[in-house]
Each structure stands twice: as C-alpha cells, then as structure tokens.
Amino acid sequence: xxxxxxxxxxxxxxxxxxxxxxxxxxxxxxxxxxxxxxxxxxxxxxxxxxxxxxxxxxxxxxxxxxxxxxxxxxxxxxxxxxxxxxxxxxxxxxxxxxxxxxxxxxxxxxxxxxxxxxxxxxxxxxxxxxxxxxxxxxxxxxxxxxxxxxxxxxxxxxxxxxxxxxxxxxxxxxxxxxxxxxxxxxxxxxxxxxxxxxxxxxxxxxxxxxxxxxxxxxxxxxxxxxxxxxxxxxxxxxxxxxxxxxxxxxxxxxxxxxxxxxxxxxxxxxxxxxxxxxxxxxxxxxxxxxxxxxxxxxxxxxxxxxxxxxxxxxxxxxxxxxxxxxxxxxxxxxxxxxxxxxxxxxxxxxxxxxxxxxxxxxxxxxxxxxxxxxxxxxxxxxxxxxxxxxxxxxxxxxxxxxxxxxxxxxxxxxxxxxxxxxxxxxxxxxxxxxxxxxxxxxxxxxxxxxxxxxxxxxxxxxxxxxxxxxxxxxxxxxxxxxxxxxxxxxxxxx
Length: 494
Description:
CATH superfamily of the domain at 146-166 and 384-494: YVTN repeat-like/Quinoprotein amine dehydrogenase
CATH class of the domain at 146-166 and 384-494: Mainly Beta
Strand content: 35-45%
Number of strands: 42
Largest sheet: 5 strands, mixed
Oligomer: single chain
Strand order of the largest sheet: 10-15-16-17-18
Distance between the termini: 68 Å
Number of helices: 1
Radius of gyration: 22 Å
C-alpha cells in the first residue's frame, strides 16, 4: 500500500517535523523533510509530500526522507516506529506562520479512533486543491522619509549559523565581548568594539540553544541533551552535563545556578561551578506542541518558565519547588491542532509584573509575587515581546507590531507595514523599537506611534533572534552565521 499523502504549508525554508503512529504498536517517530519555496514566493512554502517518497508539484520538491531519521531529531525516545509505515496523525497545513511553529509530540495516546481520524483528516486535506490556500505575500519595503542614519561598525561570522534549522542561537553581549555560536558546534567571542575574534572553540556538538552568559561562563544547550559551560575568558570547557532531552532554550544563570528548559518539558538547575544537577522539575506535554520551549527568566530568587498548554510557573531556585502556577490560556478547540496553546516566548519581567504571550492564546500580565493574572487579551504570538517604562510591545502571528498599555492591555498603536515578513522578537532601545526580518533587514520604529524611521540590511540570511543592545550598540546574529554591530542615531538627533 502506498504511503498516504499529506499537505504541508509553511512560511520558510525550514525543516518541518511531524510524527506518526504505527497501528497496533503504540510508538511514535519523528522525521523531517526540507522544503524548497515555490517560484515567486520567497518565504512561504507549499508542498504535497509522502512519507519517505519524493513527489513534485508546481515546481516544489520534497527531499526523500531518510530510512533512519536523524537520532537528534528523535531526541532520545526508544523503540520508535519506522517512518515508512507511520501515519501522519495531524496535517500541518493550518500552521502557516512561523519558523518556530514546528510540530512536536508529547505523550502517546494510541487508540483506533485517533488513527482513523488522523487518516481521514489527511486524505481530506490531500483531496483539497492548492487553490483553496491563498498566498499572503510579505509586505513590500518602500523608501522611508528622512530615515535616521545607521551604520555597521563591524561584521564577522560564525561558521554557517543555524544551518536553516529552527534553533535558539542568539547573540550575547557582556563584559566588552559578544558571544555567538553555530549549529556546527563552533563558538566565538568577539571584541565588542572592534569585532576582532578573541577566541574560537569547537565544542564537537550540535548546538541548539544559547549562548547564555553569567558567572564567568558561556553556556550552551545541545540537540544531544547536554549543557556545555565554557570559560568566558578563554573559551576552555569548564564542564559538560547530560540532561533529559534537547536544550532549545537559552540557559539562564543566577545565584550559582544554571537553569535550562528541555524540549520534553523538564527544567534542570545545575551548579554553575561543576555542572552537577541540583534539582529538576517536570511537566507533561500535550500531544501536539510547537517545536520550541520558553527560555527561563530568573528574578527575585525564582526561575520563571513558560510551558506548552499555556502554563506559567515560578520555581524557587533553592529546591525547584513551585511558588505558584498560573494558567495564561486554556486550550480550546475540537482537535489537538486547534488546542495548541504554547508559551514559547521568553517572559518579560518589569516592576513586579511578568508579561507573556501565548501562541493561539493571549497576551497577559501576571503578578510576580503570587501568579495572579492582572489582565489578558486575545492576541496570538510565539515570537516574543518587549517592554519599557511606557508600553508593552508584541509581534503577533501575522507580523503586526502592537503597542499595548501595560496596565490593562489596551491597544495604543498597531504597525502593519511589515506584515508577513517573519519578524524577530522586538528590542527596545531608548525611544525606538527594533525588529529583524526574513531578508536580513533590521527595522527601526518609534515607540511613541510605531512609525518606521530606519532600515539597514545585515547580510542575506534571516534574522530570527532579537538584537542585543549594549553600550549604545546593537549586536545582531543572522541565521547564515553573520554577527554584526550596528550603531544608530536617536530619532531626535536628525
């Protein structure tokens, strides 16, 4: 019997993970296909694919899936089904928006009804023609009136960057240096002023998250379930600790602890001196989640972590016990796909209030002391948010940029001119807001009204991560491995 077909629709040339159930076995296996964008549509992808067999449609090709999928994609779950016999349990065509929206499965739920329902869903989607799915092209960029002066101070590179995979590799600026890492395992420290390479180290690992910086360490997570600590001064390895699964979060450090959030829902606290595990915390994952986890934030002796299912938890740093747990968004809908409500963006803590955004859910403000939800408003985002003394800034799933009143969530302005450009999380610097996009552009907006006032291109690769400000300079990391320092004049200096 030929493999069933299924429809994949996505927004970027990315690896798309899916899972299937083997009838009667109760096991599950992930696999991946690299899709090539349609002509005339640089960042949105449509493909009709089979499990394990290449097909072509309208110039779009799907690479043959390997007989034995990459074990790093499988994480470390034993006894999995062969992808050649697996049935796709849900179609991903409905998830069209973000590079981070890669599907990941949680605990098994095997029953005949589920398998039959999944197969019916698959066949129905295959029967639909491509005319039922309309392309929304990215917003075109137009010349700006009186743009602020921008210039690149220096530019370097870290191997081939993310290798076109959905990772949490970010730039980190601290102590006069800029740290960046590549998927291949290369980690470099640049002089923040000149861009000169201070040290360069090969970790011999597939890096997935980081670097985080603290306690004199440069901290990285791997796809092989490890946390690596390097000496920030010279790059020498201090320790290497095995955890439960892939570390897609950026490690956070404070009070002698390193906190990481793994893709299986576990949170680990490691001793920053030797990497020994001090405590763990675990939550069960829903059946279907986005491919990614929320990076922890440490504040007032607690690790604040967002989870799939719309949950936010505050964990005491001393022993990992929950101080409180808050439901930001209740999953809703009839299918597992509709019920996804993942808190994958990094929480923002300001003046005793935690601001969070949930994919297919809400933006909310939560009291840091007791987890009480102060307000929430429907606004789906898993890109991220930022805040200053005046406003809360959110990038939604259509790449609209919002300014919200932090006291009640009311909308103050909305910028639509960067729609569908796959924006990075926003960064606030003085009276400006900066976001990156899929073509390697950085965009400057005024915080007062959201007006576009500046633009500069940094390489050709997408910018998926927030820029890092330090001492009046912005440090940016492209997916192609470009690291750059950018200087901007304030809007009122023109």
